[in-house]
């Protein structure tokens, strides 16, 4: 996920920036769409690349799931170095994430989020004319999944899922039960009823928990689909790719 943050004047206040969702593309790129941190690892390295032709100031931090929380108010059982640094044009930078030890669950994954905030340089004109200017800072945010010893890489994950159509106070919805120790992120979810298809919202379900899925437009599932027998879906794997499955309802 990428957000942009307006920066007014020449002083960058990292911890008091207001975050606005946008489709703007980052130039400081995280190598990978998620970080898998195995408990057996001493640390985890994440590579960043600055694809711009100009330098960038970068701040990185981890959060517990609230994207609006200020970095100085966040406590996680990890350290990340370096926390603030400058990247030259067309250069790379390695981040080192280290688990500090905590009472995280041993029977399931825990989720955190890696944030990378990119601050572009001021233009020479604004500096020379001593002008107040607005810059756009871009934040990228990806999942970090902590995987305890004893929990292997996901396999046959579809066998740990069950699907059924239920009537709720919102209308017809698909109940998804996750009987696995993994966080499962769905994409391309659709109900099948003969030759008819119905797209459902993409979502993530936590370990040993359940969620309800509606249509991708936020409305309930039509009554004529309550007799659907199949659901097709893709799951994002450890490498950021998609594994596709079909399950019975």
Automatic annotation (TrEMBL):
Gene Ontology CC terms: outer membrane-bounded periplasmic space
Gene3D superfamilies registered for this protein in UniProt: Immunoglobulins
InterPro entries registered for this protein in UniProt: Ig-like_fold, PapD-like_sf, Periplasmic_pilus_chap, Pili_assmbl_chap_C_dom_sf, Pili_assmbl_chaperone_bac, Pili_assmbl_chaperone_C, Pili_assmbl_chaperone_CS, Pili_assmbl_chaperone_N
Pfam families assigned: PapD_C, PapD_N
UniProt record, GO biological process: cell wall organization
Domain Pili assembly chaperone C-terminal: 176-243
Location (main, coarse): periplasm
Keywords from the UniProt entry: Chaperone, Fimbrium biogenesis, Immunoglobulin domain, Periplasm, Signal
Compartments (UniProt record): Periplasm
Domain Pili assembly chaperone N-terminal: 28-151
Family: Belongs to the periplasmic pilus chaperone family.
Protein name as it appears in the record: Gram-negative pili assembly chaperone domain protein
Organism, as annotated: Providencia rustigianii DSM 4541
């Amino acid at each position: 996920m990428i957000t942009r943050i307006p920066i007014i004047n020449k002083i960058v206040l990292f911890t008091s920036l207001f975050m606005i969702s946008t489709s703007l593309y980052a130039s400081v790129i995280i190598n990978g769409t998620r970080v898998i941190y195995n408990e057996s690892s001493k640390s985890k390295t994440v590579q960043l690349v600055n694809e711009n032709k100009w330098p960038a100031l970068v701040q990185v931090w981890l959060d517990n799931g609230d994207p609006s929380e200020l970095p100085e108010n966040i406590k996680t059982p990890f350290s990340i170095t370096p926390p603030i640094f400058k990247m030259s044009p067309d250069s790379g930078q390695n981040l080192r994430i280290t688990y500090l030890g905590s009472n995280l669950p041993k029977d399931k994954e825990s989720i955190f989020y890696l944030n990378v905030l990119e601050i572009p340089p001021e233009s020479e004109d604004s500096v020379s004319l001593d002008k107040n200017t607005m810059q756009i800072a871009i934040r990228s945010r990806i999942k970090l999944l902590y995987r305890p010893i004893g929990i292997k890489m996901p396999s046959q994950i579809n066998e740990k899922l069950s699907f059924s159509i239920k009537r709720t106070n919102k209308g017809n919805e698909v109940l998804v039960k996750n009987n696995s120790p993994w966080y499962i992120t769905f994409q391309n979810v659709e109900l099948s009823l003969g030759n008819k298809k119905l797209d459902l919202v993409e979502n993530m379900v936590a370990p040993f928990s359940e969620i309800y899925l509606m249509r991708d437009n936020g409305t309930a599932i039509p009554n004529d689909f309550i007799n659907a027998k199949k659901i097709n879906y893709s799951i994002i794997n450890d490498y950021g790719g998609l594994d596709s499955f079909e399950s019975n309802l």
